Amino acid sequence: MTSLKNLVTESKVESLHAVVKNGKQEFVCFTRLATHWIICITDGAEMYITELDAEELESCRELAEISSMDTYLARIRKCFLDADLSVSFVGTRATLTVGKSSGTINFDLFEAKAAEKKVELQNILFRLANTATSLEVDLEKANKTIDTLKAQKSQNIGGLMDFGPKVGTNPAKVKPKKTGMSVVNPTSKKRKAATGVVFD
């Protein structure tokens, strides 16, 4: 049987998080992997938690009537990414509903003890901080790449527009032809046409 760690990591559900609204309240729902697969809900003050081992996770899959564990975990991952989640509370118990259409998956979570709350709040705080930092670094790299591509494009366009001197043209200025000069021999003056003998 595949270990819990392999199941969770291969399906990429070991570190999911999403913000869920319940009326005017907002909650962060998140998962993490320790010796068990842990699901938590918190509003920053209160914390609800459940821990599942491989057998308990298998029982949850059977209750959801989903044929395979891969499909089951893939649905959970997609719903977290889409924030397709809802929460409800009864006393010290919270219910996380994954998916809002047919085939929903439900998890019952219970109020965490003070020590558990501290550990889980630290985990999600540093995870979100690291995620934000990583996104800023990726954004900075993307912006630098865009700036480099823009500069290269501008240089290429500039090179295409710079055609240089046209082939076959003489850059030397054409001197204006002086009045009365011969077209065939520009250095000599035109001869006046003979008018014949003029009689007084």
Topology of this protein?
Blueprint: H1 4-10, E1 17-22, E2 25-33, E3 37-42, E4 47-52, H2 54-63, H3 69-81, E5 85-90, E6 93-98, E7 105-111, H4 114-161
Antiparallel strand pairs: 1-2, 2-3, 3-4, 4-7, 5-6, 6-7
Give short descriptive properties of this protein:
200 residues; alpha+beta; Dna Repair Protein Xrcc4, Chain: A, domain 1; seven-stranded antiparallel β-sheet; molecular adaptor activity; PAXX_N; XRCC4; PAXX
Give an overview of the whole structure.
The chain is α+β, with helices and mostly antiparallel strands. It has a domain of 109 residues: Dna Repair Protein Xrcc4, Chain: A, domain 1 (Beta Complex), CATH 2.170.210. The chain contains 4 helices and 7 strands, in the order αββββααβββα. It has a 7-stranded antiparallel beta sheet with strand order 1-2-3-4-7-6-5. A hairpin with a 4-residue loop joins strand 3 and strand 4. The longest helix is centred in the C-terminal third of the chain and has 48 residues. The radius of gyration is 41 Å and the shape is elongated.
Concise summary:
Residues 168-187 are annotated as: Disordered. The protein has 200 residues and is α+β, with helices and mostly antiparallel strands.
The topology string of helices and strands comes to: HEEEEHHEEEH
C-alpha termini separation: 138 Å
Which stretches are poorly predicted, pLDDT < 50 over at least 5 residues?
Answer: none
Shape by Cα distribution: elongated
**How are strands sequenced across the largest beta sheet?**
1-2-3-4-7-6-5
Instruction: Please give the largest β-sheet.
Output: 7 strands, antiparallel
Q: Averaged pLDDT, please?
A: 84
From the 3D coordinates, which CATH architecture of one domain would you assign?
Beta Complex
| Relative strand content | 15-25%
| DSSP helical segment count | 4
Question: What does the radius of gyration come to?
Answer: 41 Å
**Assembly annotation:** single chain
- Tell me the CATH superfamily of one domain: DNA double-strand break repair and VJ recombination XRCC4, N-terminal
- Give me the count of strands: 7
State the name of the first-level CATH class of one domain.
Mainly Beta
Roughly what percent helix?
25-40%
How is the CATH topology of one domain named? Dna Repair Protein Xrcc4, Chain: A, domain 1
Question: Given the helix and strand composition, which structural class is it?
Answer: alpha+beta
Organism: Mytilus coruscus
GO biological process, one term: double-strand break repair via nonhomologous end joining
Protein name: XRCC4
Pfam families: PAXX (PF15384)
